[in-house]
Give the backbone structure.
Amino acid sequence: MNTIQTIKVRKSPETFLSNSLDRDDIQTIVEAGNYAPIFGKVHFTAITDAALLDAINRITIEMMKNSGNEFAEKLANTPGYSAVRNAQTFVVLSAPGGNDEMGFNMANVSCAAENMILAATELGIGSRFMMGPVMSLTQEPVQSRLALPDGYEPLVVVAIGYTDSALEERNKSIDNISYV
């Protein structure tokens, strides 16, 4: 699959299968993120511990239920809802100081996340860019287990795992593109 094909077949699965990923695949995906056009510092934390992922899920759902956001509250109260989408691996992307005023840190982690998402797709592995669960990463017992460098704050998560979604090219509207 070439890069353009990879981009066109990539999609975010609603949920992941319970099969664990191969550690070499996780490493390949995370390292792809590290090759992104980053103009600052980014830290990657790959979480495969089922108990920690469960804690992230529970805390996120509880925070969603009390968020004051009607959509988030509705999702969190849906029976069987998983805020982590049953992912077997979460990669947390953090930057020093969190989201800076100019948005550079968010740009850095987003570029890294995109590289990871495309690498996962190339390997036939599902991926999902997520910001919702980030709120739980600053809560205990999660925060102390992330092993972040001093001063780094989580900004985004890339959930990766096997999925039963077929990798088929999607048709996207191009009416939002202008050429000048």
